[in-house]
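Task card 7
Instruction: Convert sequence to structure tokens.
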Amino acid sequence: MALTLFSRTRTATAPEFTSEPWPEIGETWKPEGVTVAQRFLGLAGAVVLVYTADTGVYGTYYAVACLGCSIRTRSNGGDPYISSEQAGGEIANAHAPQCRALPRDLPPRPDDDTAREILRGRLRSQRRSDHNVTVFLTGFHLDRLALQRSTEWIEEELQRFADEQPEILTAQPRTYGTGTEFTILRFPKD
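Output:
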């Protein structure tokens, strides 16, 4: 009696691997002001995004955000910014296989008053007592998924805030290039 191992013959010509579509949460959501560069899938289905906004004065910077556990970063180790899509992908890829968060509902687009408060909250958190702080639009990367607003909207609101509260924020023509430079003024000394 002859024993044959693996005697089954393949009759179907279907591929051995069929990719699953991305979850709806990460595939179709395109918030205003954000360009999603890469998506990674966590262990329990949460999507980890690598995204950017408009190019800043010094180039394009990226941020990474998990839509399940709320981890967000715009820095890469010792570097204050993620300066390449590849670096952002490495951070997201390191987080995704460890994240056990379930997908959450997508953040709704806030009304203008709520978006203004998010923007002004970021400005207040950057205010210092020892020096003035130049405002860079890349500083809002972590807030872009919550804001869901264009760069133009952010700049208009910065100008409005500078007009309303010049003791906190100033606006002046940029000394290099075009556009407006915004500066958060330090806390007054007593």
